[in-house]
Amino acid sequence: MPIRRSQSLVKWIFENQHKLQTVRYCSSSLRYKELEENAAQAQPEHVAPSMAAPADKPRPQITPEISFKHEDLQVRLAAPYQLNPKPEVTDLGFGKFFTDHMLKINYFKQLGGWQKPEIMPFENLSIHPAAKALHYAIQLFEGLKAYRGVDDKIRLFRPDLNMERMNLAAQRSGLPTFDGDELIKCITRLVQIDQEWVPHSETSTLYIRPTLIGTEPTFGIMAPETALLFAILSPVSAYYKTGSDGAVSIYADPNVVRAFPGGVGNRKVGSNYGPTIEATARAAKLGHHQVLWLFGPNHELTEVGAMNIFVVYVNEQGDKQLSTPPLNGLILPGVTRRSIIELASQWEDLVVKEEVITMDRVIELNKKGRLLEMFGAGTAVVISPISRVGFLDHEIRVPTMSQAQPVYQRVKDTLLAIQYGHIEHPYAKVIS
C-alpha cells in the first residue's frame, strides 16, 4: 500500500506540477519536504486508486475567509547586496526607479482562494506565456501616493477610495475581490519598510502601484482560476513636461474616443490606456502635450490624457462656477476629482456642478469672455492647468494662467496642504 500511495502521489504531482511550481513562490509555500511528510503520515485507508489524484491533496495554509489578512503577512527583507542606491530628487522623473521591496499575494481557486501575503525583495515576475493577463488584458491597477509631511510623518491620501475602485475593476474583469482594508494594511507595512524611499521634498512623492493580473496559463476568455496581486513602489516627481508658463496644451480629436457606453472607461484597467498612445503621439506632433477625449455627436468632454477635466467659467447668473463632466460610465471616478468636488463645494464664492460640457459650449464661453480656466486633475499630476485647446479649425486660448486668483491654484494648494500635513484632515491617513 505505501508503494501504491507513493506512485499515486508522484503521478498527481507530475500532472499538477505547474500549479505547485506557482504555489512554491507564495508566502504559504508547499515544499517538497512537506509533501513527503504528508505522504508518510497519511493513513492507508485514504489512498486513492492509482489512476486518480489522491483524495487528500496537500493544501497550503490559507486564511479561510474570502480575503487575505494582514495578520498573515510574512516579511522577507532584502539582503544588503540587494539594496538599490537612492536617486537624487532632481533625477526622479516618473516611474523610472523602484524601491527595494514589493508585496505579492497569490490567488488559487483550487487551493481555497487567496494565499498569505508576503513582502519580499523586489524581483521580476515569472508567469506562464499563456497567462490570461498577456492575451486578454485580464488585469487592472491602481495608483496612489505616500507623502512625507512637514512633520516627517508619512501619509496616504484616501486609500479607501482606491481600494473601492480596484475591487469594482476586479469584479468587472472576472478577477477575485478582496477586503480593501486588509490590502491597505499590507501596503502600509510595505511603505514603512521602504520609508526612506519617500522623498524628503514637497515636489516629489512615493507612487504606489497595486496591480492584479490573471495568471491562469490557459487560452479561453473566461474568469481565471489563478491570479496575482502585487504592489510596487516608485519615487516620482513631475508626470510630464509643461509649457514655459507651467500649463499644458491639449488636442481634441473628434475622430478618436477613449471610452464608450457600457465599456470600462470608469474602471482602471490597462486596456483603457494602451490604445491612447497613438493619438497622444499624433497630438504631440501638432505641438500639444495631451489629448482631450471627446464623445458623441455633440463632442462632449470626458477626460484629458489620464486625468479628469475641470472647467471654470462665469455662469448665466454671473457667478464663478467650477464644472466637471458627470460620472456616466465613460469617466474614471478619480480620487482627486471627488476630493476637489467635496472641498470646493464648501467654498461660498464658488458654484460647483457636475454637468455635460461640449466643445461648442467651451467655444461659446471663450468667445463671450466667460471661460476663465481649464485644468486636469489626477493622482499622478495632482493639478495640471490648461492654456490652449486645439479642436478642428479652432485654436482656443484659455486664460487659465492670467487669472489673479485662479481656482486651479487654490485647489492645488488645498490638496497639497492636506497631503503634506500642513493641515490636519480626515482625507490624510498617517502611517508612520
From TrEMBL:
One GO BP annotation of this record: L-leucine biosynthetic process
Molecular-function GO terms, alphabetical: branched-chain-amino-acid transaminase activity
Keyword entries, A-Z: Amino-acid biosynthesis, Aminotransferase, Branched-chain amino acid biosynthesis, Pyridoxal phosphate, Transferase
Superkingdom of origin organism: Eukaryota
List of residues that carry N6-(pyridoxal phosphate)lysine: 268
Cofactor(s), names only, from the UniProt record: pyridoxal 5'-phosphate
EC number: 2.6.1.42
Catalytic activity, as annotated: L-valine + 2-oxoglutarate = 3-methyl-2-oxobutanoate + L-glutamate; L-isoleucine + 2-oxoglutarate = (S)-3-methyl-2-oxopentanoate + L-glutamate; L-leucine + 2-oxoglutarate = 4-methyl-2-oxopentanoate + L-glutamate
SUPFAM superfamilies linked: D-aminoacid aminotransferase-like PLP-dependent enzymes (SSF56752)
One cellular-component annotation, GO: mitochondrion
Family: Belongs to the class-IV pyridoxal-phosphate-dependent aminotransferase family.
NCBIfam families noted in UniProt: ilvE_II (TIGR01123), PRK13357.1 (NF009897)
Protein name: Branched-chain-amino-acid aminotransferase
